[in-house]
């Protein structure tokens, strides 16, 4: 898909799209299509409504945005165009912003239109590829249009990468796949990539990370991406959970295993966000760490009741092998804290069913020891539909993770406060870093939507991280 801003060529388009707020419909039709008489009962510009008619061999599509359109509602409205009315599109289309000058809504529109071309048919004999060479003319008189288009294209590219990572099957999306992606992206965007295989991870004493990987024939990969900007005044650290498939280990999952290819949603978020930050040349220093493994079962799989070591030096009693994500994150966090001087640390992980039980599929569970950072995370996501809400990490909860035999245990074994106790476990490996936040995205990284017949990725966290980092500058 190719976007062009105000192209000089007036070539005929098969589809022309006009986004309209509720109070713009009457005047717009009178000035531009006086021959059209459309009853308000058919189209009044309400949110999630549209009206189409033909005009000189073109299809004119009016998209209703409502009275006070949100970023996410606009993104979804435009995603529906190609996802559900794709047959209307032949060679090129026009997106006309003559009635919309808000840059955030323009951005959401462009991103949404691009996302509409995304489908899950990766391995079908006949794929839906009619939009690969699609030309999209953007008509706008806004002085911010060029900048908005550039930014929207970069966000779209990053979101598509995050969606692909989560949606690919686990025989394709392996730890090696993510490591190769990091290497390729580092060359394209002048990042520094370091990849630790099993042998190198052993020499670095990443023992908790390696314990989870023991049951899989797939080589674990400890991925580090460094983005450095000469004008940067802050250094942000990101850690993402990268379990490419989770059987639960010897505490094998009894339901929902079919969807466990999504257990690397945190890795997808931070890797795609790193790509986005670098492609926009945001003046920040960024270190992204993704410990990625497959949690499988064989004769070497780690056992319930084992005591394992960790990079931090803390010993960990294994109560449940299905609480594996926090183990690899523990080594990722500890490695980041010891080897990099960061102003803020954020980790993203599809960590607990408890977070889903608390917030459903509406927002992420947010934990932080920095109230200001927590508030900025909430504010950075709310406007774009990537919500998060704080839960406490009081020291009373940390006592639940006390172990008789080791420094800490990986699960308290109780059907309560699961997301909170998991967060307190992670905090134990941050070495009292003063500004750390953990987002449990189990309910928002992967789920049902109107754009697929099965659960699929959401790219949650990518746009949130961009907004947050820009706000932190």
TrEMBL record:
Cross-referenced InterPro entries: Leucine_aapep/pepB, Macro_dom-like, Peptidase_M17_C
Gene Ontology process terms (BP): proteolysis
A matching Pfam family: Peptidase_M17
CC per GO annotation: cytoplasm
Record keywords, A-Z: Aminopeptidase, Hydrolase, Manganese, Protease
Residues covered by the Cytosol aminopeptidase domain: 165-465
Bilayer-crossing regions: none
Family matches, as SUPFAM superfamilies: Macro domain-like, Zn-dependent exopeptidases
Record-level Gene Ontology MF annotations: manganese ion binding; metalloaminopeptidase activity
Similarity annotation: Belongs to the peptidase M17 family.
Protein name as it appears in the record: Leucyl aminopeptidase family protein
């Amino acid at each position: 898909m190719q976007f062009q801003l105000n192209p000089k060529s007036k070539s005929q388009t098969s589809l022309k799209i006009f986004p309209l707020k509720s109070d713009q419909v009457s005047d717009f039709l009178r000035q531009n299509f006086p021959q059209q008489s459309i009853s308000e009962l058919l189209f009044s510009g309400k949110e999630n409504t549209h009206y189409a008619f033909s005009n000189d061999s073109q299809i004119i599509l009016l998209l209703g945005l409502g009275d006070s359109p949100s970023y996410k509602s606009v993104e979804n409205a435009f995603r529906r165009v190609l996802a559900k009315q794709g047959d209307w599109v032949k060679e090129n289309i026009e997106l006309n912003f003559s009635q919309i000058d808000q840059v955030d809504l323009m951005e959401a529109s462009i991103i949404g239109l691009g996302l509409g071309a995304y489908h899950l048919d990766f391995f079908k004999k006949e794929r839906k590829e009619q939009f690969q060479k699609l030309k999209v003319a953007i008509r706008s008189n806004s002085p911010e249009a060029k900048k908005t288009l550039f930014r929207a294209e970069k966000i779209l590219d990053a979101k598509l990468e995050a969606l692909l990572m989560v949606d690919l099957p686990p025989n394709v999306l392996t730890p090696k796949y993510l490591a190769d992606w990091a290497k390729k992206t580092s060359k394209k965007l002048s990042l520094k990539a370091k990849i630790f295989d099993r042998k190198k991870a052993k020499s670095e004493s990443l023992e908790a990370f390696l314990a989870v990987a023991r049951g899989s024939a797939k080589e674990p990969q400890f991925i580090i991406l460094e983005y450095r900007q000469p004008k940067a005044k802050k250094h942000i650290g990101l850690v993402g959970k990268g379990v490419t498939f989770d059987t639960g280990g010897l505490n094998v999952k009894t339901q929902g295993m079919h969807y466990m290819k999504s257990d690397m949603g945190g890795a997808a978020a931070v890797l795609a966000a790193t790509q986005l930050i670098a492609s926009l040349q945001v003046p920040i220093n960024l270190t992204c760490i993704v410990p990625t493994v497959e949690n499988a079962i064989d004769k070497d799989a780690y056992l319930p009741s084992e005591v394992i070591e960790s990079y931090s030096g803390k010993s960990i009693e294994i109560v449940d092998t299905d609480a594996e994500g926090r183990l690899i994150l523990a080594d990722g966090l500890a490695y980041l804290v010891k080897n990099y001087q960061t102003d803020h640390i954020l980790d993203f992980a599809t960590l607990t069913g408890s977070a889903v039980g608390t917030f459903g599929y509406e927002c992420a569970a947010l934990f932080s020891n920095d109230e200001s950072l927590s508030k900025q995370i909430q504010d950075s996501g709310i406007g774009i539909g990537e919500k998060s809400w704080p839960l406490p990490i009081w020291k009373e909860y940390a006592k639940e993770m006390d172990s008789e035999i080791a420094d800490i245990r990986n699960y308290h074994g109780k059907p309560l406060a699961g997301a909170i106790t998991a967060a307190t476990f992670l905090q134990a490996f941050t070495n009292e870093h003063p500004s750390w936040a953990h987002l449990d995205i189990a309910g928002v990284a992967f789920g049902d939507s109107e754009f697929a017949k099965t659960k699929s990725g959401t790219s949650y966290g990518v746009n949130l991280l961009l907004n947050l980092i820009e706000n932190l500058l």
